[in-house]
Amino acid sequence: MANTAPQTASPGTAMAIAPELVRLDARPSDKAAAIQQLGQLLAAAGCTDPAYAASMAAREQAANTFLGHGVAIPHGMAADRHLVRRNGLAILQVRDGIEWNPGQRAHLIVGIAAASDEHIAILRRLTRLMQDEASLARLLTVTDPAAIIAALGAETPDVAAVAATDLAERFDWVLDYPTGLHARPATRWVEAARATGARIQVRHGAQAADASALIALLQLGLRPGDAITVSAEGRDAAAALARFRATITGLSAQEKADAAMAARRATTATKGFEPTGPVITLAGIGASPGLAIGRLHLLLSHQVAIPDQPLPLAEGGARLEHAIRATRAQLKALEDDTGRRLGAADAAIFKAQAGLLDDPDLITTTCQLMVEGHGLAWSWHQAVDRIAGSLSALGNPVLAGRAADLRDVGRRVLGQIDPSLAGGSLSDLPEGKVILVAEDLSPSDTAGLDPDRVVGLATATGGPTSHTAILARTLGVPALVAGGAGLMDLKPGTEAIIDGIAGRLHLDPTEADLSAARSFIARQAERRAREAAQRAEPAATRDGTRIEVAANINLPDQAAFALAQGAEGVGLMRTEFLFLESGVTPDEDSQFATYRAMIEALQGKPLIVRALDIGGDKQVPHLRLPVEANPFLGVRGARLLLRRPDLMEPQLRALYRAAAAGGALSIMFPMVTSVAEVVALRAACDRIRAAVGAPEVPVGIMVEVPAAAVQADALAKHVDFFSIGTNDLTQYVLAMDRQNPELAPEADSLHPAVLRMIAMTVQAAERAGKWTGVCGGLAGEPFGAALLAGMGVRELSMTPRDIPAVKAALRGASMDQLQAVAAKALECATADEVRALEADLAPAEQAAA
Ligand code: PEP
Ligand code: MG
């Protein structure tokens, strides 16, 4: 495969700044001119293609590159990395400053050309420099480029830290979580490390962290592709390390699935609201979709002065322990309450926060400061501030989110030490609908918000993966994050429209824009309410054709939620998760118990269980399968099942035993490529069914490779049904890795080539008198579902949350209309043309918008 990325030099040398790339006393007329100048400097020095300037300008539309304190860091779009020939920095010193965004003036503008994550190092230096305002101010008047080069080029002490040594037992691993080591997986690492009883260390380059210390782990700032060495010592170190390895590598599949889903959602998100009148717009990052109108309420972080009142060390230690214990109980209560109101996933945020309280660094630093003679509250506050500060300074949005969590927990403990120190509150909200503007919000503030009063959130810092953003999404409150320090200078009471999709805050909108926004909001709300109200009803087109809508769930305890969302059964139970999550191979009896529990939880509704689909993105470390160069093209799914009877047979026995005990169970095989495979799989089913004495159950296959779609005629003779896996079918038809975030916008299941494969499959099944379902991601998109139904798909299975909107889309048209749109889609040349057909199906009120 051709590698278009230029070579990256080693850290430290990669970002060396040449004097000709520093322009002193530059006087660009505005932001666009500044970006143009930086583009010219970088291109002239051979760092980038001249087109890189346009890419930097495009990035400004998508994100805010103003760092604060007069520093901005324009850089190109990720998709344009091929325009970078070698890493480089160009710097404009603009003494009078230029307006970067409304209310934000940039004086030092650092254009970054980086083919990899090299800019992290420079961000680290910049954020450090920004903490030293005097040095930063000096750089604005210096007349020698060397001063700027020295300030930005100097290595920081922690980068040059002394190399840590590994412990006795070790293994190397390259982190493959697409969003790096963020708090959720890190919490699992900590739990796993503690459960082993051995000492486990994670090293990245010269930095090492104890795997049982959450903050230390997060401070490594691990990004995808980072090579780490994990080592252990102590009792049974080798076995402990093997268990730890199984946990951390076992999390990869879920992390990848989450990231791919997020990328797909981002590219398929409907366009946000566009004001037409003169309006000042502040840009941040959209963190929770939706549109809302309200008056700004600024939550100023009260800089509560923390008194430094020394006290006897023993008393300080005891009070600290008591405060931490009380905070832990408070977080447990919050976890339970949030679990009841918003669900287990959101409640887990507070579990992760409680994990921060166990961090040895936090306790040690507090104690060291008390030993030095400082008071308890002061020492605790300092320790939190130092560690949170070091997390934020890494310039990594994931870690910025953890810093907010740490400060939140820190404030709770402080409130336990002395209630008067608990800090700012939300108790003084003005009357009416409010858009809350804050430097950052704590997860507990966010979880406690009343969404009827607080209709939007805008924070100056934070990232879209912060817990606040996750909670805002669950509460359905539109939010933007990383809006920049200028947010905090806005006038309280200003009327504004917040757009959580585009990440925009439109200030003082005109009456016409307000009225347009109101109708937009009303239409969205009506649509959602209508969909929710009718979620339990069947999905039938206007002329009465029923489409079965089912859920993709993996565990029996997810069934109740799926049914409540309107699921008419389970169209895909991915059994590999039973293997991935437990860290062991579940035996026949425990699988039987799980399948029975699922059948019972579904109260008579049909269940399709997919036999193990291991391989590709779903690696199961404890099976120790051979490493493959191309796992997606390797021994996965049916290919593995046929080679490993020790895996397939207990599963089929458990399934047939479950079927014999009653219920509507079907068996489905993944990743089938040939007739020979189906014949062999069916023979195994028949043999095991006879041995167990079970009734016949429908046996189907997934159609997810082009060979199966093209040969659907031949395959249909041997199966009872097809279920199309559009996630894999898309990746194999388009030859685009389903996990590659860079390709996510193009790896589009609406590509006409994919649609034609689907149509071939459905038609072949119909000719053979068999039915076809779809259980890949396309089934969960309302327009995708409508197209599939128009092509003749009779069952759609999806994430439970998607069910109400999909059912509504199916009810919105007649089968004739769906078939006409599907026929047009098959004739389209591009995915964009297909997407444009959505307008043909838009309900009248949406088309009028
Ligand atoms: C698919 O490929 O579309 C599918 C449903 O299977 P999985 O996502 O589990 O590979
Ligand atoms: Mg698949």
From TrEMBL:
Biological process per Gene Ontology, one example term: phosphoenolpyruvate-dependent sugar phosphotransferase system
GO cellular component annotations of the record: cytoplasm
Enzyme Commission designation: 2.7.3.9
The entry's keywords: Cytoplasm, Kinase, Magnesium, Metal-binding, Phosphoprotein, Phosphotransferase system, Sugar transport, Transferase, Transport
Localization terms from the record: Cytoplasm
Residue span, HPr domain: 168-260
Domain PTS EIIA type-2 positions: 15-155
Cofactor(s) this protein requires: Mg(2+)
InterPro entries, per database record: HPr-like, HPr-like_sf, PEP-util_enz_mobile_dom, PEP-utilizing_PTS_enzyme, PEP_util_AS, PEP_util_C, PEP_util_CS, Phosphohistidine_dom_sf
Any GO molecular function: phosphoenolpyruvate-protein phosphotransferase activity
Main location: cytoplasm
Reactions that this protein is recorded to catalyse: L-histidyl-[protein] + phosphoenolpyruvate = N(pros)-phospho-L-histidyl-[protein] + pyruvate
Spans traversing the lipid bilayer: none
One Pfam family, short name: PEP-utilisers_N
Classification via NCBIfam families: PTS_HPr_family (TIGR01003), PTS_I_fam (TIGR01417)
UniProt record similarity statement: Belongs to the PEP-utilizing enzyme family.
Protein name as catalogued: phosphoenolpyruvate--protein phosphotransferase
Record lineage: Bacteria, Pseudomonadati, Pseudomonadota, Alphaproteobacteria, Acetobacterales
